[in-house]
Amino acid sequence: MTPNGRARRGFTLIELLVVIAIIAILIGLLLPAVQKVRAAAARMKCANNLKQIGLASHSYSNARGAFPPARSIYNPTTHQLGVGVTAATNGHGWGVNLLPYLEQSALYNQYKFDPDALYGSWSLAANQGVANTPLAVYQCPSAPPNRTASFTAATAGFSATSADAPGTAAFGDYFTAWQVASVTGLGSTNAALDPFGLPSDLGRITDGLSNTIMFTEQAGRPDYYILGAKQAATTGMQTPIWWGPWASYNAFKYQGYNAAGSGSGTACAINCNNSQGVYSFHTNGAMFALCDGSVRFISTGVPVLTLAQLFSRDGGEVVADTY
User: In whole angstroms, how large is the CA radius of gyration of the chain?
Assistant: First the structure.
């Protein structure tokens, strides 16, 4: 009873249902906004990661006179880095070389550089502690987090007799191109970083540092994605285990895809297929670090040929600033 003697009136069932319905509507309106904010924050963090990687490459260049190679490979006979080597054999990727310039000197100092490794030194048992360490700077927050995979000599792309496998590794989402596929329609096929072994002289990037891509996304490995859909198997995927560990050879031959994302073509440039192309978990585009240290978001509507021209370091192409 109230002080004046009247009974307090409670909510009716209809009123309660109306309130619940209003709350549900408000939540429905707020959720897309919250999701957009989260996506924007993840995209910003991804851009910052690539910015840090690009700046680390310049710090490497300041210390060594050139950008890091896409892959550091030792000649198995002479034990010299990159001399006389034309294929991915023993060694590691650019991700290892940049560790000291990404405030990861302690991890770098643990890495065993072994020119006698049969195949990738990143896969040595002695380097498992390093290779298994997930690094946020090498992971796009829009992609599934903290991916690892087990590999054997066969699944990693090694010889079946390799003593450097099996093992496990933590995966990253950022790649460099070591070549541009001719299917793009581009005449020049040279990408920013040297594909095998030697640091890359900045003077060879004659198209201009601000017009040449150094790093981009090829996210989601070791899982296989086509046009936003995770595939049930990795059949048809280029080296699903060997490419993707941040310490490995994360360098690919850039190509475009057909409209279905299932094969090479010129209809789809970005977010088509994470086997051999630029692929992100951002909406309508992907992030790119250019050789001048800047970072750009390029939309999925960019022509395959335009993106190929940006990957080329010395083709002399004039790329309109409309991408």
Answer: 24
Rounded CA separation 86/120 (Å): 15
DSSP tag of 76? T
**Residues 23 and 265 sit within 8 Å (Cβ to Cβ):** no
**Tens digit of each residue's pLDDT (9 = 90 or more) over 104-161:** 999 999 998 876 665 567 888 888 899 999 999 999 999 999 899 887 755 555 544 4
Instruction: Specify the pLDDT at position 318.
Output: 80
Query: Is the previous residue joined to 68 through a cis bond, with omega within 30 degrees of 0?
Result: no
Q: How far apart are CA 177 and CA 51, in angstroms?
A: 17
* Of the candidates 323, 52, 312, 7, the residue with the CA atom closest to the CA atom of residue 184: 312
Ramachandran class of 81: left when φ > 0, alpha when ψ lies in -120 to 50, beta otherwise: beta
Angstrom CA distances, 116 to 69, 93, 101, 295, stand at 19, 16, 26, 37
d(CA 321, CA 293): 17
pTM for this predicted structure: 0.85
The one-letter amino acid code at 187 reads G
